Amino acid sequence: MLKTLGAQIKEYKKDSVLTPVFMIGEVIMETIIPLLMASIIDDGVTAGNMKHIYLIGILMVGTALLSLTFGILGGQFGSRASAGFARNLRKAMYENIQTFSFSNIDKFSTSGLVTRLTTDVTNMQNAYQMILRMCMRAPASLICAMAMSFRISPRLASVYLVAVILLGGVLALIVSQATKHFSQAFPKYDALNESVQENVSAIRVVKAYVREDYEIEKFKTASNNIYKIFCKAEGIVVWNSPVMNLTVYTCILLISWIGAHMVVQDALTTGQLMSLLTYCMNILMSLMMLSMIFVMITMSVASARRICEVLTEKADLADPEEPVREVRDGSIRFEHVSFSYKKEAQDPVLKDIDLEIKSGETIGIIGGTGSAKSSLVNLVSRLYDVTEGKLLVGGVDVRDYDCEVLRNQVAVVLQNNVLFSGTILENLRWGDREATEEECRHACELACADEFIRRFPDGYETYIEQGGTNVSGGQKQRLCIARALLKKPKILILDDSTSAVDTATDAKIRKAFAESIPGTTKLIIAQRISSVEHADKIIVMHDGEVNGFASHEELLETNEIYREVYEAQMSGSGDFDEKAG
Questions:
Q1: 240 CB contacts (<8 Å, ≥6 apart)?
Q2: pLDDT tens per residue, range 499-549
Q3: Contact predicate 163/304, CB 8 Å
Q4: pTM
Q5: Distance from C-alpha of 373 to C-alpha of 492, rounded to nearest angstrom
Q6: What pLDDT score does 236 carry?
Q7: Measuring CA to CA, which residue among 140, 166, 1, 8 is closest to residue 81?
């Protein structure tokens, strides 16, 4: 874990080294000041030597200024190092997330990844800054003050030593108890972020069903869980203060009492007693700082583990050593393919799929909910790897391709269409970043999107809100189809992506596909038979298996499931999830 996190310090190594150096310099200056103060009292004030007072006073001012300078520099370099460390952590996690396959992403919830990139990284940033500054300053101050105390009076310094041992034991107990609660707190942030994310993304549904009170209560519960855990943890940590104050005042009383007797007996000077009292405060404050460091590190350990989980996660899908970098054509061949989302699953999602699709064919895919239609097409662009068998695209096993090359030749329009904040043109150019405006218009004409885009006051420069909330479902689907067409793919997959489009527009889109991209293999998932009946062949999926694979006319004659659903849809009484009768 330390090696993984340490690798993200990178260009901030110099700042990370200079910070503790300046903090130690500050401690040394602070340690010298009580000695100078004792000299002023003993050799200046007591002896009535004003020259000595002025000389030592100037030295004290110079030492204080040096201490201030070292402290400022330590803070500056420490802030730069910790902020840079946090930036590198976020960047490294985000870049690694981009390499994840769908199976990797399935291990982490969206809210969990957001928490890791925000709250957990902030904890690490605070902890790293504290380690660079306080973790060096506190032990150095403790050691220096203790050494100087023993140099002045071993008898009185032994009071500090006993206090340090007792206080250290109590603080260790407090930290160990608080750790248990802090480690439970951060997973609760995932639930809180999930509640917020769901509410914001589905705010229209919340308001349509008048569920604001329910969502408020849900958020309140998640927030209250975090509150309770932190209250328990802070309720333990808060004992730091009274224990520290008791120890400080006890030490001051003992040193004052014993020191006063020693001064009277000429075994200790007044200046030395003042120095010892100052060192007393330095020692005990150093312990307080150490306890705060332990608490912060305790909080950050849970965050560090969660961050390392993302950083060390390896993509399940890897390119071969010498990948194929050209997709010959859009032919697809399933050779006894079986697939499970989890390796330990007993029943596969897809079972012994054996299909051959020629390049340029239009293939319809229909089936009831949960029949594994989307799972089937997800394998084509290698979003998942097959569990058994072999899947060939262009005559080559998809596992032998460079993933980027393969996916550039497979355009997918998902069932849940996603548009990004930006203009319509910017969204379209996700398909081809170099596409001209004329090419974008042509793709939109094929997808029947040009007609509504022209009605917008700003046309293709119309700004799309995050998630495409300012366009209708059908408009969003057509924009996503146009975006996919701009890739000029060899394979085009439409995953129920015309469900929000009227039948007339659906027919226009299918006609445009047939005339404009005849060489592209088209896989069209649909619930309406009318959307796929003109396809070259239709795959009927049922319970993860291919129940039928033939033309519309052949399936009407030979496939009972297809015939029943066709008759039900023609009479307007059902679909693949609602059989006739």
A1: 171, 174, 288, 291, 292
A2: 667 777 777 887 888 778 888 899 998 888 888 888 899 999 988 899 999
A3: no
A4: 0.68
A5: 15
A6: 79
A7: 8
Cβ-contact 559, 566 below 8 angstroms: no
Pairing assessment for the beta strands 537-542 and 362-367 based on DSSP bridges: parallel
Report the candidate in 455, 456, 424, 423 with the shortest Cα–Cα distance to residue 441. 424
Q: Which tokens sit at 405?
A: 């090359």
Give the pLDDT band of residue 580 (cuts 50, 70, 90): very low
CB 232 within 8 A of CB 178: no
Averaged pLDDT for residues 360-364: 91
Residue in 6, 26, 5, 131 with CA at minimum distance from that of residue 74 = 26
Token output for 217: 């209560």
Determine the average pLDDT of the residues in 91-120. 82
Q: Is residue 450 within 8 Å of residue 437, measured between CB atoms?
A: no
Sign of CA dihedral 6, 10, 14, 19: negative
Cα separation, 195 vs 191, in Å, equals 6
* DSSP, res 333: E
Q: Is residue 438 within 8 Å of residue 469, measured between CB atoms?
A: no
- SS3 for 31-75 is HHHHHHHHHHHHHHHCCCCHHHHHHHHHHHHHHHHHHHHHHHHHH
Q: Which two tokens stand for residue 521?
A: 């293999």
Which residue in this structure is represented by tokens 């033939």?
A: 550
Residue type, 505: T
**Which tokens is 473 given?**
């479902």
Tokens read off for 387: 């569990």
- Answer whether 303's CB lies under 8 Å from 123's CB: yes
Give 120's contacts (C-beta < 8 A, 6+ positions apart): 186, 303, 304, 306, 307
Amino acid code (one letter) for 224: N
pLDDT of residue 572: 64
The percent helix, strand, coil of the chain (3-state, each to 5) is: 65, 10, 25
Strands (E), 496-564: 521-525, 537-542, 545-550
- Band the pLDDT of 176: cuts 50, 70, 90: confident
Please list, in sequence order, all residues whose beta carbon lies within 8 angstroms of the beta carbon of residue 269, skipping any fewer than 6 positions away. 38, 41, 42, 46, 263
Residue holding tokens 């849900």? 218
Please give the structure tokens belonging to residue 21: 């150096």
| CA–CA dist 401, 393 (Å, integer) | 9
